[in-house]
């Protein structure tokens, strides 16, 4: 009320200079200016509140969520370097990964010069190149690595990641260690589309049973594939079309 009175007083006390002869027009104009002034003041107050509110609110809510995560992990330290970087690895049935390596002969095509079993060793890096085998360019840090082994290499690296967690609620992302490309390699040539798609459906059905899936409907899940995207994006269900339907 007091504020409003000050505004009216200000407006009445300082009318516009006598530029217009028409009195009613002058009053209209000063009313208009008065409204503008009041509106700007209210806007300023509003913005100021908004500004201070956001400055005050940010650290406290951040602090709160930090605390919540710490109590979940069971840590009291406030400097958890893994915060926001935790990863949960799904414990997939062996048919989705390890079995493919154990039965590596099924990955080898008849036209392959080298058995895929050679490349499985050294966590997917393949056999070490001995310096006697090649020119002096190669020293003992080089391997004969097959291009389709990225899935194996990445899975092995992921197992050694320092911010792993067994509590998927704390995890920022969920890794699905499925060897999609190696699995598909078995059926890419000469098999009907239902054979090529079957492992993908099998995986999805397995994942959908897990509580981790229901949290974000899989949007926080990731997997690594060593094959190009086109191999997983078949255009139609005609047998002659390339790849499977995993997308
Ligand atoms: C998760 O649980 C398994 C078995 O219960 C254990 O071997 C592993 O070390 C645990 N991992 C972490 C990151 O706590
Ligand atoms: C696809 O091939 C498999 C064996 O290779 C066979 O058992 C299956 O019936 C075939 N499916 C269709 C839809 O033709």
UniProtKB/TrEMBL annotation:
Q: Which UniProt keywords apply?
A: Glycosyltransferase, Golgi apparatus, Membrane, Signal-anchor, Transferase, Transmembrane, Transmembrane helix
Is Ubl conjugation among the key words of this record? Answer: no
What subcellular compartments does it reside in?
Answer: Golgi apparatus membrane
Exostosin GT47 domain residues? 82-246
Span of the signal peptide: none
Membrane topology field: Single-pass type II membrane protein
Q: Pfam family of this protein, just one?
A: Exostosin_GT47
Residue ranges crossing the lipid bilayer per the database entry: 32-55
Q: Name one GO cellular component term.
A: Golgi membrane
Coiled coil: which residue ranges? none
Q: Name one GO molecular function term.
A: glycosyltransferase activity
Q: Does the keyword Heme apply?
A: no
Record family assignment: Belongs to the glycosyltransferase 47 family.
**Which named protein is this?**
Exostosin GT47 domain-containing protein
Could you tell me which species this protein originates from? Gossypium mustelinum
The uppermost taxa in this organism's lineage are: Eukaryota, Viridiplantae, Streptophyta, Embryophyta, Tracheophyta
């Amino acid at each position: 009320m007091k504020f409003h009175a000050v505004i009216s007083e200000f407006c009445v006390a300082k009318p516009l200079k006598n530029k217009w002869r028409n009195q009613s027009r002058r009053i209209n104009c000063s009313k208009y200016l008065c409204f503008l002034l009041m509106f700007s003041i209210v806007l300023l107050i509003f913005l100021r509140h908004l500004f201070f509110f956001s400055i005050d609110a940010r650290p406290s809510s951040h602090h709160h969520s930090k605390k919540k995560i710490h109590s979940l992990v069971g840590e009291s330290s406030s400097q958890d370097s893994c915060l926001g970087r935790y990863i949960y690895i799904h414990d997939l049935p062996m048919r989705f990964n390890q079995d493919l390596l154990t039965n590596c002969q099924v990955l080898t095509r008849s036209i392959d010069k080298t058995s895929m079993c050679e490349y499985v060793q050294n966590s997917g890096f393949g056999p070490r190149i001995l310096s006697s085998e090649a020119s002096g360019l190669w020293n003992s840090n080089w391997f004969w690595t097959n291009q389709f082994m990225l899935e194996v290499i990445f899975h092995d690296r992921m197992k050694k990641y320092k911010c792993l967690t067994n509590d998927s609620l704390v995890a920022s992302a969920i890794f699905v260690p499925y060897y999609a490309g190696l699995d598909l390699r078995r059926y890419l040539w000469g098999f009907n589309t239902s054979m090529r798609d079957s492992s993908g459906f099998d995986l999805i059905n397995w994942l959908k049973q897990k509580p981790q899936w229901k949290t974000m409907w899989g949007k926080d899940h990731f997997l690594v594939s060593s094959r190009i995207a086109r191999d997983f994006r078949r255009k139609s269900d005609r047998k002659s079309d390339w790849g499977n339907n995993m997308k």
